[in-house]
Amino acid sequence: MSDRPLAAPSPLPRIDITDPGFKADPFPLYARLRDESPVHPVELPRFGRAYLVTRYADVAAGFRDDRLVKNRRTALTAGQLARGPRLPRALSALERGLLSLDGEDHHRLRALVHQAFTPRRVEEMRDQAERLADELLDAALAKAARTGHFDLVADYALPLPLTLIARILGVPERDGARFRSWTVSLLSLARGNPLPRIPSVLLFLRYLRRLVAERTRRPTGDLISALAAAREADDRLSADEVLSMIVLLLTAGHETTVNLIGTGTLALLRHPDQLARLRDDPALVPTAVEELVRHVVPAETATERYAREDLEIAGTLIPRGSLVLLVVAAANRDPGWFPDPDRLDLARSPNRHLSFGQGVHYCLGAPLSRLEAGVALPALLRRVPDLRLAVPEDALRWRGGMVLRGVESLPVAVR
Q1: If you average pLDDT over residues 179-201, what whole number do you get?
Q2: What's the structural domain count of the chain?
Q3: pLDDT tier at 2 (50, 70, 90 boundaries)?
Q4: FRET label pair with 396: which of 124, 193, 311, 404, CA 20 to 30 Å apart?
Q5: Is residue 8 part of a domain?
Q6: Distances in Å between the alpha carbon of 336 and those of 30, 296, 315, 330, 332?
Q7: Which residues form a coiled coil (predicted)?
Q8: What is the CATH number of the domain that holds 53?
């Protein structure tokens, strides 16, 4: 045995989880954090200090810990609120949403919204989703015939959930182009690029308010009408709450599905054996969607939570008012819960991933996201059996930001 002392482990590098370069492959560093620093302090642009929680058991417990709250106004001191990021007054209605409330306020809103967003209502959207997927693939393949490739994100993954949610909400066909343009501005605002987009977002909110008022007076069979009509005893959603729910569907729900289809396809291209397995066995679709959600993590972290009191997680003291990020991307590859966690296995079972959260804030849009991915991916593999990347993989650009994880574009070619 050598008398030479063991080398000290190399220090952890500075981590910027919002950097597009980090998004491309965060998993090796998250593995180190699980082992060496399971609750890790970082400095984030606009937010300052935050704590990354990376082990599965701690992340799962965090989802259910009522000391970690969504409403920052109940957790932060007056001084902390004054120093933190603030939403412009004109956008304050958006703070009345499911992602910003706790306790009775959240329970009331979720109970009302759930009436308009049941699994039965979601399943009724399947035929629309299947027709739309085929329409988009027709156009994408026509483009590929002319140019040799198409962008799987811009031509398929993005317009599928966006067009579907517009139809579900009841946006008139004549307003489709404006609706899509305004949604792009809203998504840019949600990613933290506020100033250039605010005028466009304000126009969008004004448009949505008019649409909500119209459906309240003259309801049809769409989701906005259902949200406006949802009630429990004498309680119903306010106009601001309906508006906030629509915005949530367009941002958190829509972008996660885009990322699931886009990065899910990239994962399949990286694993041709699994791609062939899914193409040849349609019965594998449900477990394949669950495994892709676990493996590519369209939302790398859960949305923000704040410590409403001093607390300790895995031996680390977290002061009151601190931003706590439950890192789903790290938890979903914890070897204590997932055998061979870095391997893509479309038949993985059990698969207790945390991509849709747990507890009272479990993702209300999970059934819709599963349906859309479960339609989009098999349709793509059926219609384009010889799909391949049209650019070197290191040329792909990833989106920056705190929560979401996905590629900006995915150029693909047909042999």
Answers
A1: 69
A2: 1
A3: very low
A4: 193
A5: no
A6: 14, 19, 19, 12, 10
A7: none
A8: 1.10.630.10
